[in-house]
Amino acid sequence: LPCYDQGLSSSLNLYRNSPNAGMVEFQEKLRLQHENSMHTELEKLLTTAKPSEAEISRKDFEGFKKLFHRFLQEKGPSIDWAKIQRPPEDSIQPYEKIELKGLPADVASSLNKLAVVKLNGGLGTSMGCKGPKSLISVRNENTFLDLTVQQIEHLNKSYNADVPLVLMNSFNTDEDTKKILQKYTHHRVKIHTFNQSRYPRINKESLLPVATNMGLTGENEEAWYPPGHGDIYTSFFNSGLLDKLIAEGKEYIFVSNIDNLGATVDLHILNHLMNQPSDKRCEFVMEVTDKTRADVKGGTLTQYDGKLRLLEIAQVPKAHVDEFKSVTKFKIFNTNNLWISLPAIKRLHVKNAMDMEIIVNPKTLDGGLNVIQLETAVGAAMKSFDNVLGINVPRSRFLPVKTTSDLLLVMSNLYSMNAGSLTMSPKREFPTTPHVKLGSSFTKVRDFLKRFESIPDMLELDHLTVSGDVTFGKQVTLKGTVIIIANHGDRIDIPAGAILENKIVSGNLRILDH
Fold first, then answer.
1. Pick the catalytic residue: 307, 402, 444, 503?
2. Rounded to whole angstroms, how far apart are CA atoms 216 and 235?
3. What would the CATH number be for the domain defined by 81-397?
4. DSSP result, 14-51
5. What's domain 404-506's superfamily in CATH?
6. Would the annotation count 259 as a binding residue?
């Protein structure tokens, strides 16, 4: 069932929302007309594909047609709120309970049945960077990709195991990522890549593709999109890599976003998966963690029609959004760290039984054209699998870097790094992460780095807000709550060696070289 934008095209609204039963035939004709027009346009586009890409593009379009068909078929808000229940107690296990089981002597045999999949389709544009987000430096010149490779190599060396790394790229990131992969040739980790599908953006009014041909440049630069990480199941299968890994004896994949630095392979969860009775094998595990005020928009787990199911904010009827955001009713959210059975993915894909809600994502292109893109989320398929489980993990397994505010945290002495893994410094007395809010002058990584001569000591920081034209000298220490606000036209230079504890700094402070 789709998650709606409120202002969809007028013709679509006409047949979705018409109360008149006599309109049904008209609606059906209109739906078929939209579908036939779409098929005609897609065939035209395929005639412009390069011979080497024609087969891949045809497979992509087959997937897109299924999504578009469902989009036209389905009506109304995504869920019946009255049916939503709290998940049963035993459906979400506390991590501590799983950890208590300890680890077997032979960890390698479990590791050899695992592959790590990182979602690597995103660009660094929101942080002002060109190219794949995974190639942004986050710690001591190491990129997200470097840290991932180091983590898995460390596992393989420590346990004499063979855990491969699989990157799900998109047409936006594939070329740049492949160039960089050459530098890992001598690391002890096999790296595979496959590409997410490439779907056409649709004009919101005509419901037809905006692309004029299969090209990715010029007028077609904005005509395509990767359709969300729910596409992993189809594109993984189509690439042949799913069958290859099953043939190599792999049973599970651990899937996570490449920008979540907390998403490392957890041996206790892996051990739990491998030690289920064969008829009760978990096919899908979602790591969840306790909600804080910062996570109120995150997807949560509910019981719906007798199945454990992911509920996203986009699916919630407007009248219930505040209830959804409540930390008391829905106490956990999805980290998007998932453990999924490979044979189960194959079974569901072959049967065409992977059920994921459609997310309708409205966009405005640079020229002002309103388009929609149809997407799905990887966690939404949860309800299609058997023996699914939520595991309530420590917050440390959710450390995403979405903004330069997050980047400041992971670059600081709050974290120490070992073999590519970041852990909270033992010198910090309480395990919560400080709340950091940097203003628009810090949005781009390049500008952010210019404003810090060195990253401040933040071991005792609770809250930092910085707004306006502010720079930090070397070896600054921040403690408690620190708010620094330079009004328009002012500039504040925090002097080298300054210790700010529970301070509000405003006005104008210039420090110039003499």
1. 402
2. 19
3. 3.90.550.10
4. HHHH---GGGHHHHHHHHHHHHHHHHHHHHHHHTTS-H
5. Hexapeptide repeat proteins (2.160.10.10)
6. yes
* Gap between the Cα atoms of 448 and 454, Å rounded: 11
How do the domains of the chain map onto residue ranges?
Answer: 81-397, 404-506
Task: Give yes or no for a contact between 337 and 289, defined as CB atoms under 8 angstroms apart.
Answer: no
141: left (phi over 0), alpha (psi -120 to 50) or beta: left
Please name the residues in contact with 324: beta carbons below 8 A apart, sequence gap of 6 or more: 300, 311, 313, 316, 330
Q: 3-class SS at 451?
A: coil
Cα gap 65→74, rounded to integer Å: 14
**pLDDT for the residue 15:** 47
Residues 6+ apart with CB under 8 A from 220: 211, 212, 213, 214
97-117: per-residue pLDDT in tens? 999 999 998 999 999 999 999
The answer on whether 97 is annotated among ligand-binding residues is no
Q: What span, in angstroms and rounded, lies between the C-alpha atoms of 100 and 109? A: 20
- Residue 310 is given by DSSP the state E
141 three-state secondary structure? coil
Band (6; pLDDT cuts 50, 70, 90): very low
85 is in an annotated binding site: no
Burial of 468 (0-12, 13-18, 19+ CB in 10 A): middle
CB-CB contact of 348 with 234 (8 Å): no
Is pTM beyond 0.85? Reply is yes
Locate tokens 């004009």: which residue?
Answer: 203
Taking CB atoms within 8 Å and a gap of at least 24, the contacts of 487-495 are: 492/468, 494/470
CA 259/CA 298 separation, integer angstroms: 16
Fold matches, 81-397 and 404-506: no
- The count of other CB atoms within 10 Å of the CB of residue 290 is 14
Does 497 count as an annotated binding residue? no
Phi/psi-derived region of residue 347, left when phi > 0, alpha when psi is between -120 and 50, beta in every other case: alpha
Q: Residues 346-355: what's their mean pLDDT?
A: 93
Task: Give the chain's count of helices (H) and strands (E).
Answer: 14, 25
Q: Is 379 marked as a binding-site residue?
A: no
Distance from C-alpha of 50 to C-alpha of 45, rounded to nearest angstrom: 11
190 carries an active-site annotation: no
In this prediction, residue 278 has a pLDDT band, given cuts at 50, 70 and 90, of: confident
Judge whether 44 is annotated as a binding position. no
- pLDDT for 1 equals 43
What's residue 23's pLDDT? 76
How far is it, in rounded angstroms, from Cα 403 to Cα 28? 45
The model's confidence at residue 77, banded by pLDDT at 50, 70 and 90, is low
Mean of the per-residue pLDDT values of the chain: 91
